[in-house]
Amino acid sequence: MSKQHNQRRKKFSIGRIFVYLFLTLASLVSLFPFYWMFVMATRPSAAYNSIPPTLTPGNMMVENFKKVLNQIDFFGGMWNSFILCAVVTIVVLFISSLAGFAFAKFKFPGKNALFVAILVTMIIPPQLGLIPQYFLISNAGLLDTLPGVMILFFLNPLGIFLMRQYIAEGVPDELIEAAKLDGCSNFKIYWRIVLPIILPAFATLGIIVFTAVWGEFLWQFTILRDPEMYTIQVALAQLSNTNNIDFGMILSGVFWATVPLLVIFLLFNRLFISSITEGSVK
């Protein structure tokens, strides 16, 4: 008995070692582009095409970033991007959670057909709607404004799907029925009962939406023309509009524009973990 137990333990240990090795390798592969970007941000432009590749940091981080500040309004672009992403994330979380609550816990005519129609929009390439969306925003007088950029992201099919699935499985029907017996309105049930339970889903969806909007370029570049309204993605694109491209300068700007995403991820990740450990149903 003891011999079989030791064999199983040995197999388990070997399996765990392979899993850890694989996860370590996958993590290194995932982090390498960010590290390489950091290295290039500290090097002169010639290091970009050097053979063999340069893999150690240099001493030009400050100098390259000063070049970025001389070329574009970096902090203005960062502020515009933060406002854009924060507003879009809050609105998407609110709309998606309300819609997910309705699809998960209410019965109304055409519910399944409407839900399927929302999911179908996920397979349509966004580029196909670029021209009609541009004319709609233009006719509404929202060109060259942040609201004109925001409004396109407010309805998020993926967010509605995630919230619907999470609420359907994570919010007990008995809890909602008990709240209705106590005289709670539907919105009060959503606000007092559903929201505390779905905080982990909020954290996950918040990370997805914030990073997706922060990294989106095509729509922002189409709508924004005033340099004062540029988001950081559009502003960084102006760094390559020169004859002699300075890769060190460009990657320095890209590196510092990526740092807020890491901060947001860590903040939402902490909320995600704490929400799971605290529990919601009392």
TrEMBL record:
Compartment(s): Cell membrane
Gene Ontology BP terms: transmembrane transport
Membrane-topology annotation of the record: Multi-pass membrane protein
Top-rank taxon: Bacteria
Annotated Gene Ontology cellular component terms: plasma membrane
UniProt-recorded Gene Ontology molecular function terms: ATP binding
Transmembrane segments: 17-38, 78-101, 113-137, 149-168, 189-214, 247-268
Residues of the signal peptide: none
Domain named ABC transmembrane type-1: residues: 78-268
Keywords: ATP-binding, Cell membrane, Membrane, Nucleotide-binding, Transmembrane, Transmembrane helix, Transport
Similarity section: Belongs to the binding-protein-dependent transport system permease family.
Annotated protein name in UniProt: Sugar ABC transporter ATP-binding protein
Organism per entry: Robertmurraya siralis
